[in-house]
């Protein structure tokens, strides 16, 4: 089995570049807006080490090592015979920084350098005077930003240990060790420490602690002392238990089922919390309105005290800050990577509104109610009132996290979404770059006759898909819930009809949430539902006209490119499913695979989508054939059926049947599993993004944006010049 090597010379793009024909969005801002963006970017970047620690126990140490090397390396001393290995080293460093860790943000699998350990030690580290066995060197790296909650020295006693285990440590015979997941199952997760945490442990904590005490778990980390003792670490600047009257955390330890004792410890990531708070306070001097000021106050309270409720209040304010020129969000947001699906990864966004594109999305929002009525479920499974959300197109300046999405629909708090609303943002410069093919890396598995249309309309179709996905995918549906004791948001005496033609028997009881009921599957399940809404509505001609596609030919090409792109994404997803365990490493790809499988195996015509092999017995290549004439009939019908099932299961809280159904639909059958090696062999490297740094010019009292070369060394230099 091949080892997971870092990508070779991936495409690298500079975010918010003003070079060439690109529009200089930052220059359009006034000085006050620039300063607000500047300090929010600084706050965002100060959380870099939090994400690194959440990815793996070794990531923060590797980060410091890579930056130290770059600051001190004389590349002219690298012998010509090692130029290829030096390039491989830079490929690794760039991919590591792009993912903020040594696990792929899209796939959750570890990657290692293609250069040899001998080259790294003898040519790179000796060049910068680092001896892998020198204890003083190790003290330097483990003490500068040492966090007592992360006991690096017990895992890596020397720099050589870090290189052997942290950087190169994968077993080709057991790649489970190179995947994120529950430690009790042999996977890795630094959301947990101490003894191996299991699914049963997290079920206990969700039920007996987080749900019972109404504690939001997003900014926590779990330490298992033994089978009966747990410490929940809370991210906060304050090291002591909060003493304010509204504090949501129980004081002292709590004894729960089976005499298990749970206590809370505050001050996780305290150094980073302090830096974030400092910059949020500076940003507050340049807010555009009172809502932003109050929002930052709640962010500051959240990072100071660890209060999850304070962060929820910040999101209520954020939703009401309509269409700001500078859009920001910060916190422990998405829960995809924590195995139980309830603890969030640190993320922070700073972006500038693209007013021209936003106008296009605004028209879709205005017509949203009309499009929602077209979806294949009744009013009992939809919110009674659709409050048109803010939907803006943004140009990303800063995004701290393990990976940058093309679109965002937040907050994730179910009650806030239901009572206050949510925002949709499309990250325009990410979306455009991600969807583009390059001459060096043409799209794989597309037959020759479809290439011209696919390449021409791929990016535009993806923009339509993301827009529908975020607004009408994540933005639709009502969870049937008990909102208080014996009070419901549905007619309990006349329960809605389920998929079997009978009244549903499940719902969300008081304290239960979508995440707590569906657990680790919630992310993939919801992403799939949103993708299906996009596929269901992308055939709507009025919606396509809103996006500027007026002629039937253009619309047909957008529809065809959208369906073919989804089928191709589903095939590419095979890389992210472990053939040994059946475990999916990426929720979006699990979703897309299941949709491709639906096209292939659950439509009424085998002609709709076909996989054509170059050799039936021993294939080495294949291509997709999709019948465009069947998209709006056969394709639309199979999408409708799949979407309706997922939607009803989610809204009614039927975790048992919903889980069974989705797992069956996303399980890789043998005839598709044999294509995985071909997919991996032809895998195209994932695009990386270099983020600019903002610099305050005291002489001009202005903020400038510093760009970097679109190379691996440019990526590394951007981090060297960033305060983390």
UniProtKB/TrEMBL annotation:
InterPro entries: Dipeptidyl-peptase3, Peptidase_M49. This is Dipeptidyl peptidase 3. It comes from the Eukaryota. Pfam families: Peptidase_M49. It comes from Tetrapisispora phaffii (strain ATCC 24235 / CBS 4417 / NBRC 1672 / NRRL Y-8282 / UCD 70-5). It catalyses: Release of an N-terminal dipeptide from a peptide comprising four or more residues, with broad specificity. Also acts on dipeptidyl 2-naphthylamides. Zn(2+) binds at residues 469, 474, 527. Gene3D superfamilies: 3.30.540.30. Its cofactor is Zn(2+). The keyword Magnesium does not apply. Coiled coil: none annotated. One of its GO terms (molecular function) is metalloexopeptidase activity. Belongs to the peptidase M49 family.
């Amino acid at each position: 089995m091949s080892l997971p090597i870092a990508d070779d010379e991936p495409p690298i793009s500079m975010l918010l570049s003003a070079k060439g024909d690109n529009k200089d969005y930052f220059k359009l801002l006034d000085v006050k807006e620039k300063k607000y963006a500047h300090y929010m970017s600084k706050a965002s970047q100060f959380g870099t080490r939090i994400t690194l620690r959440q990815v793996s126990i070794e990531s923060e140490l590797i980060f410091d090592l890579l930056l130290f090397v770059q600051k001190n390396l004389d590349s002219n001393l690298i012998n010509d015979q090692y130029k290829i290995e030096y390039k491989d080293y830079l490929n690794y460093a760039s991919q590591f920084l792009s993912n903020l860790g040594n696990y792929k943000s899209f796939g959750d699998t570890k990657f290692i350098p293609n250069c040899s350990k001998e080259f790294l030690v003898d040519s790179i580290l000796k060049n910068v005077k680092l001896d892998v066995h020198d204890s003083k060197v190790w003290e330097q790296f483990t003490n500068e930003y040492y966090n007592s909650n992360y006991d690096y020295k017990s895992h890596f006693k020397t720099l050589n240990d870090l290189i052997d285990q942290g950087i190169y440590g994968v077993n080709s015979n057991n790649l489970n060790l190179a995947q994120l997941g529950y430690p009790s199952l042999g996977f890795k997760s630094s959301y947990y420490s101490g003894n191996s945490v299991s699914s049963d442990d997290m079920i206990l904590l969700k039920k007996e602690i987080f749900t019972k005490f109404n504690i939001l778990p997003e900014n926590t980390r779990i330490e298992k002392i033994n089978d009966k003792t747990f410490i929940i670490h809370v991210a906060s600047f304050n090291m002591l238990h909060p003493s304010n009257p509204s504090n949501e955390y129980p004081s002292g330890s709590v004894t729960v089922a089976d005499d298990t004792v749970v206590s809370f410890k505050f001050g996780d990531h305290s150094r980073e919390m302090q830096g974030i708070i400092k910059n949020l306070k500076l940003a507050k001097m340049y807010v555009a309105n009172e809502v932003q000021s109050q929002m930052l106050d709640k962010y500051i309270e959240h990072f100071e005290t660890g209060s999850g409720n304070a962060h929820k209040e910040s999101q209520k304010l954020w939703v009401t800050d309509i269409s700001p020129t500078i859009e920001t969000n910060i916190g422990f947001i998405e829960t995809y990577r924590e195995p139980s699906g309830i603890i969030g990864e640190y993320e922070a966004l700073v972006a500038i509104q693209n007013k021209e594109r936003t106008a296009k999305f605004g028209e879709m929002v205005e017509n949203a109610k009309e499009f929602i009525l077209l979806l294949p479920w009744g009013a009992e499974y939809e919110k009674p009132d659709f409050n048109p959300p803010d939907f803006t197109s943004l140009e990303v300046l800063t995004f701290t996290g393990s990976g940058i999405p093309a679109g965002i629909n937040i907050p994730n708090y179910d009650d806030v979404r239901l009572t206050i609303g949510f925002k949709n943002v499309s990250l325009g410069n990410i979306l455009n770059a991600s969807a583009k093919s390059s001459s060096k890396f043409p799209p794989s598995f597309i037959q020759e006759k479809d290439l011209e249309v696919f390449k021409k309309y791929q990016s535009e179709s993806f923009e339509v898909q993301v827009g529908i996905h975020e607004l009408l995918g994540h933005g639709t549906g009502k969870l049937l819930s008990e909102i208080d004791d014996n009070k419901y948001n549905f007619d309990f005496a006349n329960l809605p009809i389920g998929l079997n033609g009978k009244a549903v028997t499940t719902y969300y009881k008081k304290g239960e949430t979508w995440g707590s009921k569906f657990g680790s599957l919630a992310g993939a399940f919801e992403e799939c539902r949103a993708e299906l809404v996009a596929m269901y509505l992308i055939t709507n001609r009025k919606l396509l006209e809103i996006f500027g596609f007026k002629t039937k030919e253009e619309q047909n090409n957008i529809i065809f490119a959208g369906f073919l792109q989804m089928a191709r994404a589903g095939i590419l997803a095979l890389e992210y499913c472990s053939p040994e365990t059946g475990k999916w490493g990426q929720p979006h790809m699990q979703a897309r695979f299941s949709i491709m499988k639906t096209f292939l195996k659950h439509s009424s015509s085998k002609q709709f989508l076909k996989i054509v092999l170059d050799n039936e017995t021993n294939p080495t290549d294949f291509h997709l054939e999709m019948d465009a004439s069947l998209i709006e009939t056969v394709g639309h019908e199979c999408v409708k059926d799949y979407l309706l099932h997922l939607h009803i299961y989610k809204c009614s809280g039927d975790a048992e049947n919903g889980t069974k159904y989705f797992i069956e639909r996303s399980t890789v059958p043998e005839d598709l599993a044999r294509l995985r090696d071909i997919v991996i062999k032809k895998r195209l490297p994932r695009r990386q993004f270099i983020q600019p740094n903002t610099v305050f010019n005291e002489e001009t009292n202005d903020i400038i944006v510093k760009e970097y070369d679109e190379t691996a060394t440019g990526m590394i230099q951007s981090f060297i010049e960033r305060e983390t």
